[in-house]
Amino acid sequence: MSPAPSFPLRRWTIVLGAGLLLYFLPLPAFSLAQRHLLAIFAATIIALIARPVPMGVSVLLGATLLLLTGTLPPEKVLAGFGHPTVWLMFSAFLFARAITTTGLGVRIAYLFIGRFGHTSLTLGYSVAISDLVLAPVVPSDTARGGGIMAPIVRNLAQALGSEPGPTANRIGAYLTLVGFHCTYAASAMFLTGMAANPLIANFAKTIAGVELTWGRWALAASVPGLCTFALVPWLLHQLSPPDLRDTEHARAHARAKLQHLGPMNRKERLLVGLMLAVVAGWITAPWHGLSNTAVALAGVCVILLLRVVSWDELLGDKRAWDSLLWFALLLMMAEQLNEQGVIGIISTAVFSHMHGWPWPLALAALAVAYLYGHYTFASMTAHVSALYPGFLAAALAAGVPPPLAVWPLAFLSNLNAGITHYGTGSAPVYFGAGYVAQGTWWSIGFIISVVNLAIWLGVGLPWWHAIGLW
User: Is residue 425 helix, strand or coil?
Assistant: First the structure.
């Protein structure tokens, strides 16, 4: 019989201490209702970082406290479940379940590796491209990077004689770093690449009045994102050079895996067609007028009608249902902070010293602070929920054009994940493989973060101007 889990007293002390302090501390700038809303939201975000309980439990507790304290009425607390953004994210998770269940994700990865994995560098690019291909329809870097790509990377490294320890630098360390840094970069490329991206789109709409559609997001990310994918695997090859340069054995290993999988079956072929149709539906939304959520839900319905996966299999996807719960409630809290005026008060107070700065300088300072603020977060969703509204409001107050203000912060909400070994769900999976020491992980992560800043601001700003986004 396993022992009962210990009560995380220290973590709860941090969460409750911060929440109670804000709840009862007189803050003249806030009304009583605003202060209570801020206190419960802050305690919820700290709980997402400290993790005394799972994320869903933390958010459910926060929503329940809003009800029990009378801070918000039930219809407002539960309003998030009717938000289209929530169902877009949920639908994308169900697509991810179908990709995993049918084995299509593994097949795609091995196809690229078997075709392009001639050398250690081209093998790195194969891993990167595989993740990029999966990103539009796997809305979680944890599911995509940690659940699909990381096991393949580990398997490839072992097949090439590279294990954690003395042989880590043979190729395992390099492939691990490529897999990780390209996972969150792929998340930045698509509205459906990361669970919190739709939340960002909602903030952009409600705070700045800017609509981030699937097509606009992909177009805005295309040039800086492809620059990242072209440069980062090569740069990692210099920063963590593998001892093994000829990887023809990896191609043979991938081809053997594909032979074992056999030809694509009916479900895989149907799923490929449906994925292409859904992505086409998102891209052509300005012409047919259907929302991204409507297109995604239609795709899920077709998957079920054609029995690509069964309803019972979708019901068994705990990640999707868990995400539906916490995402809807977290979105509600964040929206209420803005609706009740809390975000405006905080952004005015915190960023008042930037008054009078030229807006390009203000935007650069906000971007850098936003990215490196992720050292204190273990979740991209928690980071977005806590900081994106305030930083966006500060950028607008500094005079940054609204269509421009939303984009750098949106992309950096994904790119900030690379600076630590705990900054996103896929990080512990890759780091936990044991191929890269923590000091090396952090130092390389910082270098890549500087490169990403240079690419996404240096290349992104003129690109967004050229395509008329600002």
Answer: coil
